[in-house]
Amino acid sequence: MKQIRLQIRFKKNGDLRMIGHRDLARAFERLLRRVELPLAMSEGFHPHPKINFPSALAVGVEGESEVVEVAVADEVELGTLHERLAGQLPDGLTIVDVRVMGTNEPKTHVEQVEYSLPVPNEQCESVKAKIAEFLTAESWPVERTNRRGTKQVDIRPGVHALELDNNNQLSMRLETTQTYNVKPREILALLGIENIEDYGAWLTRTCVYLAS
User: Fold this and answer.
1) What is the rounded CA–CA span in Å between residue 53 and residue 31?
2) What is the extent of the structural domain holding 11?
3) Strand 62-72 relative to strand 204-210: parallel, antiparallel, unpaired?
C-alpha cells in the first residue's frame, strides 16, 4: 500500500516543556488518533504507528519550531487537518504547519539547531568574556560520560554562532550531526551559567534546520 508522509511543525511551550520525549510521542499519537488520521503501521509482531521525531527535545526546553514526520495510509485533506488538530491540542502544544513530503524526499534529518536564553544583568559581563574566549579558541574539549566510560570531545567546530545581544539574550547555533553533536547545556557550562535554569530561566529551541 502506498504511504503518504506528512511533516508537521509544532511548538511546545509552557508547562508542557517539562514532559519527556516519550510522553510527547505518546501525546502526539493520541492526538493523531483523535482526529482519525489513517496512520501507517510498522510490520512485525508489535506494529506501531510510523511517527518520527528527527531530534528529541530535552526535558525543560521549549520548542518554537519542532518537527515530527508521520506516515499515513491514505490521502489526507490538508485544508481541514490543521483545524482538526488545533481543536484537540493540549495546553502548550501548537501546530504551526503541515505539509505533504515529496515521494522521493529522504527521511528528515536535523543538521543544526538554535537556542536562546535570557541572562541576568549581573552575569552578562562574565558571559561576554567567556564567549570571546571560546570564539577565539581553536578547540574546546569537554568531557562526556556514558555507560562505556568518559571521553573528551572537541565541541568548538560544532558551534556555528554564539552571542549575547544588547537585551541580555544569549543565542547559539549548534551542529547536531554525527560528526559534531553539541549540547546546549555544555555551552551553558563553559559560560559559567550551568545552574541558570535552577533560578527560573529556561532554554528555548528557536529553530531546527533540516538537511537539504
Assistant:
1) 15
2) 4-100
3) parallel
